[in-house]
Structures are given as C-alpha cells and as structure tokens.
Fold:
Amino acid sequence: MPNTIPVVENILSANDQIAMHTRAQLDRAGVLALNMMASPGGGKTSVILKTITELRDQVRIGVMDGDIVPIDLEKIAEMGIPVSLINTGGNCHLDANMVHGALPSLDLDAIDLLIIENVGNLICPAAFKLGSHLNVVIASVPEGDDKPYKYPAMFKGADVLLLNKMDLCEYQNFNLEYFRHGVEVLNPGLAFFPLSCRTGEGFDAWLAWLRDRITERSRIG
Amino acid sequence: MHELGVTQSLLEIALHHGHQAGATRINQLNLVIGELSSIVDESVQFYWDMISEGTIAQGARLNFRRVAAELNCHDCGHRFPLNHQEYICPQCGSANLVVSGGEEFYLESIDVDLDES
Structure:
C-alpha cells in the first residue's frame, strides 16, 4: 500500500551539522573565520597576501587553502604564516567535512583570524556551509559588471563584497552603478569595498571593516 | 560538479526516514529545489540509479519541484520572475526591489510501501 511520509529535511543537513561542529571549535578558540570565494583569477590570493601584510603586526593569522596544487599556499607559507592545504582533488568547492578534517593541522589557540580560501568558482561554494563566520566574496572588474545578475546565489549569501582590480576600470566598460544595483537588490545593505590589490586604493576601508569584526569577536570571546 | 555528494546525502536522508517508518520500499522522492540552488536533475538521477542499488530505495523515481526566485517591487507591489540581466520593475520602472524564494533545497517527502504484516 503506497504511503507518503513527510520528511522536510535540507539535503545538505549532514554538511551543515559538521559545519556547526567546526563553528563551535572556532568559537572555543576565539578564532574568527572567513570563507573567501571568487572566480579563478578574481584575486583571492592577492587579497589574502595583502591582508596578511597589512594586519600581521596586530593579528595572528592562519590560512587554509582548497586547491589541487599548493602554489598559492607556498607564497603564504613563505611569509611565516601557518597554513593548511586541503587537497580538493579537483572538487568544485570546499565542504564542511574537508574543513573540519583540516582543523587539527592548525593550532587554533595560536591564531585570531582564519582565512579559508575556497575553490575558484562562483556557483558551487555558495551552497556549502563551512562553519566559518563570514562569507567574503571577491569580484573583479575584468570579469564584468553583470556578475551579480549571473550568479545571484553567491552575492545573496555574501557578508562582505570586495570589488578588486579597480585600477582597470578605465580600460573596461564597467558600469559600477549597474553592478551595485544588482548587489543591492540581492543583498540590501551589504558591506561593499571597491579596491585594488595592485595600487592599494580602497584597501584601508576593507582592513578597517575587518579589524572591527575581529575586535567584536574578541569582545565576545 | 558536486551532484554525487548531494545524491549520497539524499540517499542517507531517504533511507533514514524510510527505515524509521518501517518502509519495505521507497518508490519516489519528492524534492523541492529553488532556482538559485545549483543542481542538475539528470545527473542526480544518474548517480541515484548507481548508488541506490541494493537498498530499499533502488530504482526510486526522483521528482524535482522547481521553485522560481521572484522580485517584489516595494513601490507598486508587483511580483515577477528574477531575470538575469536587469532588476527593474516592468510595471512601474522602479529599481526598489527585493528578491524572494529560490533558495529551497530539501527533501519534502518520500512515497513508500509499508510492511503490512
């Protein structure tokens, strides 16, 4: 006899559960964790390197990187920053299980800020919670001003948005108002920082915002 | 492509609820998937047919109910589907909009045979 059984369970609930464990571990250690997402070539590594350079005197930073080759991570390790490579084996995103498995490779008590560099992709990473506190989305001028319209889920889920490579604006037909409007409809009031890693323009505003989040965090902890 | 992982989660959830209800067979899964969730129906069904083999859910049919994302106009109240080029109200021209729906990603129910003995 056929019967319908109600379930109503999120398909990624197992992932979300693991993410909650990671979050609890980070909270116990007083670590603020960022999930950094962008297209390949959007500037994740550049933003991370520059953020480390500017903040390392005040904040203890660790980096986790989801990649198939450790090239980016080597650059970061050369700066004397604790790093952990999550070998994604070509996967299209990080998931909670990968991040949770990599946690023991970092001494959480020795860092205040954990930067998790996700796989370069504007679609899949948006769906998987990692246990991090803030989703940092990086778009860049050469990618075009229509990114929020093409990848709404990524922009809708962001907690802060960086628009990198602003120094290339004069060479591109980039309509900043069109871009901003798309973001504003999807994610009203989203913290937004146009900047350039190359020239440094706009970077201070992002750093000030991030410093405030770290301070808030240490006040709670 | 992350459909394999998604399909594995789906199988675990379906089997858990099926066993709990004392089902002898799971015939259909009713999924609700928002437009903003990235998933390819055909790939999920493809993986499903492989990994459900030997379970009570073997050969079950996956029904996908797609939910559209909508824009709501704050000025005139008009609701219309999200288009992927511009966010402007087609009725009053306002840009004062908010998006709703489209993020659904859950298993709503399963259709099963119960042990009648």
